[in-house]
Amino acid sequence: MTSTSCVVLISLLVQLSGAICPQGCLCISDILNCGSSGLDRFPNPLPFTTSVLDLSHNRLTWLAAGNFYGVPRLHTLRMSHNRISLLSPGAFHNISRLRYLDLSSNKLQVVGKYHFQDLPALEVLLLYNNRLTRVESNTLMGLGSLRKVYFSFNQITDFPFFSIRKHSHPNLVTLDLSSNRLFRLPVDDIVVLPFAVQKGLFLHNNSLECDCSMYRMFWHWEQKGYPSVKDYKDDYKCLMYGEPQISINFLRSSHYFENCTIGKMISLISPKADKIVYEGEQVRLDCTGTLNGEDLSYSWVTPHQENISQLIQNGTLRLNQDGSLEILAAQSIDSGVYQCTAVDNTRMVNESREVNLTVVAQCMEEPFNTGYTTLMGCVVTLVLILMYLYLTPCRCGCCKPPPPSPSISTSGEDRCTLASIFAAPSTDRLKSKSQSDRHVVFLEPLLMGKNGQPFVVEQPTIEWDTENFTIIRERNDSE
C-alpha cells in the first residue's frame, strides 16, 4: 500500500469517526466551541454530531462553499467579531436546518439572495455592526421562517421594504434598521407592510427628511403604542429642509408640523370596514378616503397577497379608474382582508384602507322549524290521549262492578270511571273486607286417657284473620 493511499484512508477515517475535536476548540456533547481561539482559517473537519458551533472572536476573513460539509444537524452558528468581508455562493450549503445565524461585527458590505438561499429554516439573522451600504431586493427572499432580522449600525441608505409581504414572511415580527443612513423613507411601501412588521420596525437614529407623510406615519404608530416608537421616542430625529445642521426631535416638536393637520394624520390609515355578501353576488370595494387630488394612483393587496396596481379586468376581478375593486362573482375563497393604498403623486401623500370581506353561502330558509313541529305534535297527541281516557266509557271486564254483597256496600260508587279505578279504597270497605276474610278454626287435638281411651279436651275457639295472619279473639264453647 502506497503512502498516498494511507493518507486518503486516514482522512476518511477521521471524517467518519466524528469524535475528532479540532485543535484549539472545545467539544462538549453536540456543542463545538472554537471562540477566541485565534483562528484565521476555518477548522476542518467538523464533528458530524455538532448542532451548536461557536466561531466568534477569531480572525476569519471569508466563508467558502463547502465549509460546513458533514454537519447536517447544525442549528446554531455564531461567527460574530471576525473579519469576514466575503460570503461565497453556497457558503451555507448542507446546513438547511440552521435556525440561528450571527454574522454581526464583521466587515460585510453587500448581502444578496444567493447568500442565504440555502437556509429555509432560518429564524434569527444578525447582521448588525457591519459595513453594509446596500441590501439587495431579494436578500430575504425564500426565508419564510424568519422571525427577527437585525441590520442596525450599518451604512444602509435604502432598503427594499416592498419585498416583505405577509405571504412571503408570515412570521416576521422584528426588522431593525436603526442607526443607519436612511434619509427618505418610502412611506407608501411601509404602510402596507404586515401590521406585525410595522409594530416591530425600528427606524430610530437615522437622518430622516422632515415631511408630513413621514411625520403622520410615526405619529400614528405612537398613538398605537408601538414599542419601536414608544421606547425610542427621543431617538427619532429628522432634518429640516434636508440640512444636517437643523435636526429636530419630531415626535416632541409637533409645532413644526402645524401644516400637517390632525385630520390628515388620522386619514393616513382609514378605519377598517366590514362587508358581508352572499356567494355569487357582485361586490364593489371602495378605496375612498380624504385624498382628492388629480394625480392619484391606487393599488390593492388581496387576502392571497396578490398585488393589483393596474386597471385590469380578468373575468374575476376588476380595478376601476376611481380605485374601487370589483369582484364579479364572489366565492367563499374570496373572504379575507383587502388592503387599498391611494397615493397622491403630486404631494407625496398616501392613505391606506382595509376592507374585511365575508362571503357566506346561500341556503333555503325552512318554512317550519323541525324542533317546534315535533313539540307541537307531542302536545296534540297527549291532549287526545287525555280526552280519550276521560270521555270514553269503560268497556273492560275488570271495571265491571261485582255482584252486590251484604257485607260490601256499593252505593254512591261508579266503578266505570277512571277516578274509581285509581282512587284509594274507603275505610268502610277496608273494614267490611277484613270482616269477610275472617275464618273460625276449631282446634280439637286428641289426647289419651288413663286407660288408653282417647278423650276430647275442650279447647277454646279461635277467630283467625287469614288475610293479616292475626288472631282476632278466643272463646270457649260455653260462650
UniProtKB/TrEMBL annotation:
Parts of the chain that traverse the membrane: 372-391
Entry similarity comment: Belongs to the immunoglobulin superfamily. AMIGO family.
Main location: membrane
Organism: Cyprinus carpio (Common carp)
Compartments where located: Membrane
Gene Ontology CC, one term: membrane
InterPro entries, alphabetized: AMIGO, Ig-like_dom, Ig-like_dom_sf, Ig-like_fold, Ig_sub, Leu-rich_rpt, Leu-rich_rpt_typical-subtyp, LRR_dom_sf
Residue ranges occupied by any Ig-like domain in the UniProt entry: 244-356
Membrane topology qualifier: Single-pass type I membrane protein
Alphabetically ordered keywords of this record: Cell adhesion, Disulfide bond, Glycoprotein, Immunoglobulin domain, Leucine-rich repeat, Membrane, Repeat, Signal, Transmembrane, Transmembrane helix
Stored Pfam families: Ig_3, LRR_8
Name used for this protein in its record: Ig-like domain-containing protein
GO biological process: brain development; cell adhesion
Gene3D superfamilies for the chain: Immunoglobulins (2.60.40.10), Ribonuclease Inhibitor (3.80.10.10)
Residues making up the signal peptide according to the UniProt record: 1-19
